[in-house]
């Protein structure tokens, strides 16, 4: 695979910065340097590092799955496996999300690659919003966190399954199967920069793709994590508690909180459980459903790799449908 000098310089700088970060993180004790750092900044640093370190393993998983799809799965295979009917294709996509243990950090590169390989946009959307919640790891963590309120566990999974199909259907109505990806110049010219795949071998090709995608996704992850840590550090949480008892306001508040916190779906249930005495059951479900579908980290990634009009419509559709579904759930089941 040929790489431009600019690409090599960017990767060298990125590796050097990562190396410097690891060196400072492991070997430098800033307390011994007698640097008086304000408490909020220390808290900001701690939250930022926790978000990044929590997300990086899942990003790595996502980019490797994406690279494997690029190298080993052809467009013809995807088109052959998916039902021809656009509506029927929504259901296997939702079921597929229940198999893969991929969180919202890792799902963006996977869905992006599948769409590039020929998966219809609306089917990719179903996988995008469903997989981070429906997978078995998230079910197990949610069940463990809410052992005394298992109805929240089943409500989370049931609403996620139904909403993923409805959201996919709504995006199909809005965009049909029109291309909404942002393509690089190389992709538009070659539609596959690895035409020399046979020469370098599929294993090397997989690692090339994974490394490229990791650095591409990583910069948006870091930016999103920094914004999320800013909100977490300076947000007045006492205000949330004051709104927690309202049947109509609390779900919206917790959805906003889930967006700002940008927690990994494997761990968000334990945070939600800590609000059990303050917020209504419906608002906890809103937190557990909305956060994995849409948070600050993956929103920045979506804007980076999809067209702005599509992302804006996606945000509006997901937000409205989750909020309405939670209100309906509260009226019917609570």
Proportion of residues in helical segments: over 70%
Shape: globular
Give me the Rg, rounded: 21 Å
**Major sheet attributes:** none
Main location: membrane
Organism: Metabacillus arenae
Pfam families: ArsP_1
Protein name: Permease
Walk me through what this model shows:
The protein is an all-alpha fold and 334 residues long. It has one domain. The protein is built from 17 helices and no strands. Helix 11 packs across helix 16. The longest helix has 34 residues, at 39-72. The radius of gyration is 21 Å and the shape is globular. It starts with a helix and ends with a helix.
For the structure shown, list the relevant keywords:
334 residues; mainly alpha; globular
Question: What is this entry, summarized?
Answer:
Belongs to the UPF0718 family. This protein has helices at residues 5-27, 39-72, 75-81, 90-97, 104-116, 121-134, 136-145, 150-175, 185-190, 197-200, 202-234, 237-243, 249-261, 268-274, 281-293, 296-305, 308-333.
Topology at a glance:
Layout: H1 5-27, H2 39-72, H3 75-81, H4 90-97, H5 104-116, H6 121-134, H7 136-145, H8 150-175, H9 185-190, H10 197-200, H11 202-234, H12 237-243, H13 249-261, H14 268-274, H15 281-293, H16 296-305, H17 308-333
Helix pairs in contact: 2-5, 2-11, 4-6, 4-8, 5-6, 5-16, 6-8, 6-15, 7-14, 8-15, 8-17, 11-16, 13-15, 14-15, 15-17
Protein name: Permease
InterPro entries: DUF318 (IPR005524), UPF0718 (IPR052923)
Main location: membrane
